[in-house]
TrEMBL record:
SUPFAM superfamilies: Pentapeptide repeat-like (SSF141571). This is Pentapeptide repeat-containing protein. It comes from Pseudoduganella umbonata. Transmembrane segments: none annotated. InterPro entries: 5peptide_repeat, Pentapeptide-BTB/POZ_domain. The lineage of its organism: Bacteria, Pseudomonadati, Pseudomonadota, Betaproteobacteria, Burkholderiales.
Amino acid sequence: MKIFSSATWDKLRRPALRRPPAAHVPAAAHLRELLAAGAPMAGRDFSGADLRGVVLDGADLSGAVLERADLRGASLRGAQLRHALLTGVSLDDADCSGALFDGACLDGSRAGHARLCGASLRGVRANDACWPGADLSDALLDEFVAVGITLTHAVLDRSRARSMVLLDARGEASRWRGARWDKVLALRAHLPHADFRQARLRGCALSGAELAGSTWQYAELDGLQAAAGTDWQGALLRGTRAVDCNFHGARLAGADLSGGRFVRADFGTCDLSATLLDNAHFPFCCLIGARLHRARASGADFARSICRRGDFAGAAVDGARFAWPGMAGADLALVTGLAASAP
């Protein structure tokens, strides 16, 4: 499956452009004069400039070089920073609501508690960036590449991302309520206690991610890859809808899947011990070798699932439904044709 374009891979491999420090650092007043005069910003070097608290709302800084510039507390509402070089820039507490950063480089940047609500960060690169507590609600993150980014306690409600890369990202207690992910690669992401309530993930990969205590209530998961090495311990997936997802070998001990619907999902060899599965439905799922000891599965429906070699020791299965007659020895391939018409 092609998660993202070859151009995106190039951005992962290509080192950031480094420039020597400028001999003269323009002051905020000088920058405002240039903008007022309509001077083109592309290629202008403001590296290391002290721009703390400057107001540049709506300014066109497309192509500007702002490496290591200090923009703490600045106001850049609606500013245009397309293809700007912002390596190592400090945006702590800055207001960049509605700003356009498309194609910009923000490697090594800091944006603690910055406001990036509704900002466009399409094609942005932010490797090793540190944005704790940043507000990226309603942000556009298509082809956003951020290996090793820190998003601890950040808010990304209703953000949209296609072909985003978050390898080794750290987002403990981050919030993604109502977010939309399409073909996102978040391998080994550290997202304990993250909030993905009502989020929709399609064709995404979370393998090796740390998701302990995360919340996925009423989320929609389609084609998710989150197999062995992914830790969902104690996660809340109540009411989740998942189709064609791969959880094979993942750890879901103590998770709450009650009331969820999991269609054609692979839970083979999963650790589902002490999980809550009350009234959950598992049509055409594979639970071969899954460990469900001490699970609570009252009213759960496993009737069209394959549960052979599953460990139900000590599980509460009152009212639960199990395999169709004659299917106890089947394997997953046997039900593939039957599953094609499943809702």
